[in-house]
Amino acid sequence: MNKSVKVAIPIVLILVAAAAGGGYYLYHQKRQAPAGKEKAAQGQVLYTCAMHPFIIKDKPGTCPICGMQLIKKVEGTQASAEEQKMLGHVSLSPTQSVMANVATVPAEYAPLSKEINAVGIVQYDQSRQAKVTAWVAGRIDKLNVNTVGAFVSKGRPVAEIYSPDLVAAQQEYLLALRSRDQFKKSTIDAISQGGEGLVASARQRLKLLGVKDEQIAGLEKAGHPNIKLPIYTPLSGVVIEKVVQEGQYVNMGDPLFNIADLSTVWVEVEVYENEFSFVKMGQRVEILSQSYPGKTFAGRVSFIYPFLDPKTRTVKVRVELANPGLKLKPDMFVNAQIKAPLGSALVVPATALMDTGKRQVVWVESQPGMFEPHDVQVGARVGDKVQILSGLKQGDKVAASGGYLIDSESQLAGGSGGGGHEGHAGAAAPGAAAPAAPGAAGQHQGHGAPAAPAAPKKGGGMDMGDMKM
């Protein structure tokens, strides 16, 4: 063998051994690759951006798109029960609380009174209205009241009427009186007692024609019929309608005047259907009128109408009140204030409540700087307070201001929050961004104040390998 062949043979043997060793190494690497991937998937901590959950990195840093600090990524299926519970929590640093104007107020029991404001119209008291009618057909010879609005008294006649039928009835009564005196002289008991029956029958007829007992007594004393019979009103009040004229002929039962007693009036208040359940019989009502600024009229609820107006969606409530000086006029528009006591109730500020339509949520400070959402059931809203029926207990500190900012922080962190936006950041993709521990969302990996966003990389610095679509 020459010298060149002797040198080539060892080189070939070395190359063959290297190729065999490399093949053996690659073979073992391929077999161990699946197990390694599973182990990395279980043990490796990944980081993502709350605003861009498709950005996935294996170490902390800043988002290449918006510059926000990356947060730990927790897969929903791999999170423990404690981590799942903490997903909805939001932690704020003292600096963030000041910047977001977050203020907490404890839920406390307080006497609550529902105030209902409504409009109403002054009406006549229907139990204090009457009509003056003709009890007998005849001619109105004299009217003592000639104008609407005049005050009439129950003991004074309002008109005088001439009626032939009334004159005949008076004559019959006088004749019965004389006959009774003659019949008393008879020795026969049936005849002597028959005169009393005639007098009683004639007296009853006069009463049916509207003649009063004192008028009958005057007739007996005078001994002759009265041509004109006075007509009286059944109650004292104001004439609200004048129907007849002097000299007019009327029939039995025809109305002459309408009288109303305005010393007491009604106010019919219209209460909306979502508030009338708070109105009870006997409740005090304050009536205010623009005609008398600063003056308040007090009344009581006397009746709640059993039907609803389909056009205005209101229920009428009748308020009865005194009317000294007749200041309240019928058909006046007034404002009514009804105060319905609700007793002692658990209340929170109305600004603490977030109403999504399906849920009503308040943010409760479970630990200093840490907030969690509580679903609550609310009752009446009174001013700046709202009644809590369930979901809170006395002493719970709720976010009276800044609740919407806390909810927004929860949404950005991937929690369900209280706003009902479950389809935004929290469900953008399977395994979307969520805080791994308290403080991850609000404090950005435990730093006291929010770090300034880093400037995005220039010149195409964003690595497409960081994205998981």
UniProtKB/TrEMBL annotation:
One of its GO terms (cellular component) is membrane. Residues 130-260 form the CusB-like barrel-sandwich hybrid domain. Residues 412-469 are annotated as: Disordered. Residues 47-73 form the Heavy metal binding domain. The chain crosses the membrane at residues 7-27. Keywords: Ion transport, Membrane, Signal, Transmembrane, Transmembrane helix, Transport. One of its GO terms (biological process) is copper ion export. It comes from the Bacteria. Residues 347-406 form the CzcB-like C-terminal circularly permuted SH3-like domain. Residues 264-340 form the CusB-like beta-barrel domain. InterPro entries: 3HB_CusB (IPR058791), Beta-barrel_RND_2 (IPR058792), BSH_CusB (IPR058790), CzcB_C (IPR058649), HMBD (IPR045800), MFP_Cation_Efflux (IPR051909), RND_pump_MFP (IPR006143). Residues 165-225 form the CusB-like three alpha-helical bundle domain. Residues 425-457 have a biased composition (Low complexity). One of its GO terms (molecular function) is transition metal ion binding. Belongs to the membrane fusion protein (MFP) (TC 8.A.1) family. This is RND transporter.
